[in-house]
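Quick sanity check, Autophagy-related protein 9:
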Amino acid sequence: MAHFDTEYQRLEASYSDSPPGEENLLVHVPEGSKSPWHHIENLDLFFQRVYSLHQKNGFTCMLLGEIFELVQLVFVVAFTVFLANCVDYDILFANKFVNHTDSSKVTLPDAFLPVDVCSARIRDNVFVIFILIISGVFWLHRLIKFIYNICCYWEIRSFYINALKMTMADIPYFTWQEVQARIIEIQKEHQICIHKKELTELDIYHRILRFKNYMVAMVNKSLLPVRFRLPLLGNTIFYTRGLKYNFELIFFWGPGSLFENEWSLKPEYRRGGNRLELADRLSSRILWIGIANLLLCPVILIWQILYAFFSYTELIKREPGSLGARCWSLYGRFYLRHFNELDHELMSRLSKGYKASSKYMNCFMSPLLTVVAKNVAFFAGSILAVLIALTIYDEDVLAVEHVLSSITLLGVCITICRSFIPDKHMVYCPEQLLKVILAFIHYMPDHWQGNAHRYETRDEFAQLFQYKAVFILEELLSPVITPFILIFCLRRKSLEIIDFFRNFTVDVVGVGDTCSFAQMDVRQHGHPAWMSAGKTEASIYQQAEDGKTELSLMHFAITNPHWQPPRESTHFISHLKEKVHREAAAGQQGIIAENPEFTSTHSLQSDSEPRSLIANLLMGPPSLASLHLGREGSIHPLSIGVSEGASALYSISPVSTSLHLRGSYPSARLPRPDHPAVVAGRAMTGSGTDARTISSGSSAWEGQLTSMVLSEYASTEMSIHALYMHEMHKQQSRGEVSRHTWHRQESDESSESVSEDIEAARNFPRSSTFPTTSHREGPAQPSGSQQRYGGASDPVSGSFRAQRTPRMPMGGWSEENQMGRHHDPVPEEGSEDELPPQIHKVT
C-alpha cells in the first residue's frame, strides 16, 4: 500500500449557480396544472436523449440507424460463418473441376456446399457454436435495448412536437442553441426541473456532459490515460474506445461504480476518512474487470477483426491512400476538449483545423523515404503500363492467372508511394501552420512554440493527430492490451482516483454532483500564467493545466452569450475582451500607416507580442462584415480591426467554402443592416433568444445559412481570443522556469526552493502537493447552492488541516518513479448507449 499514502486538500465552495434567492427553491405546481414533462426525475438521460435526437436529425433517422445496427450485427456473424463453413474454395480457385451437363462455365453457386453438408460442418465445429451463442446473447441484449430506447425516444419526439413546437422534418434546420433556448423558455411553463425556477445553459450542459467533464478533467490532471515508453517507439499513449468504455464502466455507471445514479456520487466517496479502504475496494474492482476483459479477449478480438475487415476493405480497395490519411485520436479529442463542450461543437472545431494539421504533418516527409518511393513508383508504374497496354491490345491477357491481381496490387503500390512524395510546388512554413492549427484546436504545449520544425514536436502532435492505419491497429489490439492496462497500470492509481472525485466534486442545486472544473471558476481553478493572476486563489493542485479553465470559460461564454457567469468570471471575460479590442485597434492603426504588402509579410515573421499577432489577423481580405456578437446576442459593429481581421481565420474554414459567401452577398460583406439576420438579431435581443440560433427567414435554407454564418463569427471570435491568450501566456512565461504541461518531468526540488514557492504563493490556499503544513483561516463556508466533499476538517472549528506529506503523482508531480504526463476520440459513442437508460416522470 505504499502507493496509497497521499493526501489531497479539499476545495472550498464555489459560486452559486442559482439565481439570487432561489438556492433552496422547490417549485410547487398544483396537481391539475402539471404537464407531462413536469418534474422529470432523470434529467441527465432526458437532456442526453433530446440532444441525441437533434444530432441524429429526428426520430425517423435515429430509428433507421438503430435498425441497421441490429441488421449489421446479424450480417457480420452470419456471413462470416457462411464463408468459413459453406464455401468450396477448391472450386472457387479452379483447383477442382465441375461436371456440367448443359454448360462448361463454372458459376458462383457451384462453389456453395449443399445445405445439409454446410449444417453438418457448423454442428461439428464447437468454436463456431460458441461464437454463435455469444453473438446471439449479445444481439438479444441489443434488441431489448433497442425496443426500450424506441419507447423512450418516442417520448422525446412528443416533447419536441408538443413542448418545443418543432416537427421532426424541421429539426435538421434548427441549431442546438435554438433548441436549448426553447428548453430554457418552457421551463417556466412545464417546470422540467422543480429545484430551480429557471434553467441556465450551464445546467443543461452539465446534465449532458456530467461524466465527460470528469474524463476531460482527469486527462487534464494527468490521471488518464496511460503513457508507455517503448524501446523503439519512445513515449506512447494508448487510448482506445474499448479502454474508454472500461473507464466509464468502472467510474460512472457499472456495478459498484463511484456514482449511485447519474447525478449523485455515493456518500462514502465524499468523505476522506475511509479513503484507503475505498482505494482498496476500487483496486479490487479494477482487477476483476481486467480479468473479465482477459477472458472475453478472444471473442472481442475476433469481432474487432471481422468488423474492421468488412468496414475498411472496400475503402482500401477504392482509395488505397486512405490508410495514409490522418484523424484526430481519441486521446487528442479529450486533450483538446473544453469543459462543457458538446460533441458537435468539438467536431466542428477540430474539422476546421484538419486541413492545416495535415499540411503541417506533411512538412516532415523523410528525404530518404521520398527517394525510395519515387523509384519504387517508377518500377511499379513501368510494369503496370506494360500490362495495361497488353490488355488493350488483347483482352484475353486478363484470363492469364494472376494478371488481374498484379494490376490491382501495382496500382495500390503506386498510390501508396505517391503519398510519400511531397508536392514540389508546396512551400512549408511549420511555425505559421502551427499557429493556424492553434487558432482552432485552442490547446498546445508551451514548448511547441518556436519548435514547430523539430521532429520531437511532430511526434508529440502525432499523438493527437494520428494515421488512420494506426487508429485501426490500436482498435484491433485493444482487446489484448486493455486487460493488462487495467490490471497492472490503472490499479496503482486507485487512491489518486478516489481523491480526485472527492476533492473535485461539487453539489449544484438543480443539477447534482458535477466536476468542479466544469464550473469554469477562475477563482477556484484558474492559472496565474493564463491571465488569471490576481483573480485566482487556486493552488498548484487546484489549477487546471494548459489554461483549460480560462479557455473553456471564454468558449462557453462566446457560444452561449446569454449565460451569466459569476462575478470573477465576468471580470475575467470583460478584461480579456477589452485587451483584445484595444490591441486590435492599435494593430489596425499600424497597418494603415504602413504598406499593406510589407506589413503582411512582416507580420507573418513576427510573433513576439500580441499586437503583431492581432495585426497578422487583420491582414486577411474583408470577406465578412465588421460585426461583433455581443454578450446579449445582438449584432453590432466592432472596431474595424478584429472583425475584419477575423476573415484571415475564416478564409481557411471549411464552412466558408461550402457557403460561398463571397458570391452570395454584395461586396462579400455579411450581413447588411436590413438583412434578416440583423433584423432577427435585434428582435431577439430583447426576447431572450440567442441571435446565433435564429433559424427564421423566408425559407429553411435561409435560416440555416444565417445560423451557420453567425456560428462562424463565434468560432472566429474564439480563435482570436485563444491566439491572444497563448501569446500573453508565452510572454508571461518568459524568464520563468519552464514547466511543460505535455510531459511532466520528475520533480526533485530542494526544500529551499519549496519554501520560496510557498512564500511566493502566500495568498493562495495551500495544496498538499507541497511538503509543508498549512492552516486555512476561518471555517469553510459552503454556498447555498454548492457543497464540496472531501478533506479533513476540525469538527469544532471547521478549519482545514493539511498534513505534511510527500509529493505524489497528481498532475504529474512526483519525487520518484513518475512517468511522463498521461494524455488522451473515433466517433463518440452516444451517451444513451453507454448509460443504463431510465426516465421516471411524476405526473
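Posting the structure with no commentary besides this: Residues 1-29, 595-698, 737-784, 791-843 have pLDDT under 50 and may be disordered.
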